[in-house]
Amino acid sequence: MWLPEGFALEGDSVVRYDHGIAGSRIPFEEYADLREGSLHNTSSDTLVLGRWANDDTSYIAVARREDAMYFDMGDDWGNAQDAYDLSPRDDMFEFFIRPALDEAISSGKDIRITHDPGKAGGSFLERRWTTSELTAT
């Protein structure tokens, strides 16, 4: 399994390094299952991102309507935070969202964004937008 920059496989765990210091870790098998389960409709050539909402404007609803790939961990999001003591802003982003984006970019998928990331107020998408080669389509 491809690991993002700043991660290493140590024994049976995936370890996140921050400035060269080992930090959070997840057993490899569980990590692989969580990553695989978080991506939906992976055969699509388009990844849809945006703001989550509990209505038809949510990026998930848009992706489903357009038969596009999307990221959604459902209840596993909170369960992984609790089970592995992961911070929601840093660890969850680095362990799960960044790899999904990096893999989509490296595989040449079109990336559609349903909401303006610059107006998202500190969202995960805004964070990735300002630190990568993502561009609006």
Provide a short characterization of the protein structure.
The chain has helices at 28-38, 59-66, 76-84, 91-106, 124-129; strands spanning 7-10, 13-18, 21-27, 39-40, 46-49, 70-71, 110-113. Helix content is 36%, strand content 21%.
Blueprint (SSEs and pairs):
Blueprint: E1 7-10, E2 13-18, E3 21-27, H1 28-38, E4 39-40, E5 46-49, H2 59-66, E6 70-71, H3 76-84, H4 91-106, E7 110-113, H5 124-129
Parallel strand pairs: 5-7
Antiparallel strand pairs: 1-2, 2-3, 4-6
Provide structural commentary.
- It is a single chain.
- With 137 residues, this protein is α+β, with helices and mostly antiparallel strands.
- It is 36% helix and 21% strand.
- The chain contains 5 helices and 7 strands.
- The strands form 3 sheets. Strands 1-2-3 form a 3-stranded antiparallel sheet. A two-stranded antiparallel ribbon has the order 4-6. Strands 5-7 form a two-stranded parallel sheet.
- Strand 2 and strand 3 form a beta hairpin.
- It starts with 6 loop residues before the first strand and ends in an 8-residue tail after the last helix.
- The relative contact order is 0.16.
- The mean pLDDT is 86.
**Shape, principal axes of CA atoms:** globular
Strand/helix succession: EEEHEEHEHHEH
Q: Span between N and C termini?
A: 29 Å
Q: How big is the Rg?
A: 15 Å
Widest sheet: strand order?
Answer: 1-2-3
Low-pLDDT runs: none
Write out key terms for the chains shown:
137 residues, 7 strands, two-stranded antiparallel ribbon, alpha+beta, 3-stranded antiparallel sheet
